[in-house]
Amino acid sequence: MFKAIFLERDGTGTQARVADLDEAQLPDCEVTVKIDYSTINYKDGLAITGKAPVVRHWPMVPGIDFSGCVLKSRDPRFSPGDMVVLNGWGVGETHWGGLAQLASVPADYLIKLPDGLSSRDAMAIGTAGYTAMLAIQALERAGVTPESGDVLVTGANGGVGSFAVALLAKRKYRVIASTGRPQESERLFALGAAQVIDRKTLSEAGKPLQKERWAAAIDSVGSYTLANVCASVKYGGVVAACGLAQGMDFPATVAPFILRGITLAGIDSVMAPLLTRQAAWAALALEVDAGMISAISHEISLSDVIPMAHALMEGEVKGRIVVNPNLV
Length: 328
Hints:
This protein is of the alpha/beta class. It is built from nine helices and 15 strands.
């Protein structure tokens, strides 16, 4: 038996509880993992609260990422005792996920935990830090350097935003952090932001072409915010789009793309290929230190997950939430 967050659906909507499940209920996949840590991401909050149709198959164990130790494997790439990490692949949506003490997943979903990272560190980083690194690597592949100019990070107090600010600052970029919680500016300055702006300046309809302000940007918000960001990026700049907290719409024009030659790079952390994942995690193992992790994350038990998911949806959570499923 093992414990997990268990989601069921009835006539009134999504019902979430901590449940005792039998290992025989797990999907029949090549690798069984004893989960050491998981996290709560925005998508997990949507699934647990039922605020969006994230879950595709019912019942479901949510949790889009986890780290842990291989217990059993029918795939030669993994052996009992291997430390592994998983991000995305529809886990927590179409396949039972990481907010549990055990998981059974296809071998293709896993990568080995890089040297230098503990299992807890991996989930303090989690999908949020991994996504932030994918976005930074996309900017740099497009030619962005610290000498290019300021880099804007929207949703800066969230998980992706917090890591993007810290990782960019560590790479010597001058970071402008946009947040809806300007009262927490000191936290963002501590992470490395050079300036903090109120998200209200970006979150409403604006002109299709605006004053050039940033060389590049990482946006986890979407909608009007992403449109305004694109309208304000300098000539030849790059915007990495990796989230939709404000909405999936993109109420923009082609003006900044044609008249300023900017690039909009989409960041997908869910189905990214193996080599892309390995490169991002290798960089994270080198660049994320204990100070960054302690500044960005804190730990909760499995019993805390459901109320924390509701708090996340109300915008009351900052940074990364690490879940220890073996604390109930």
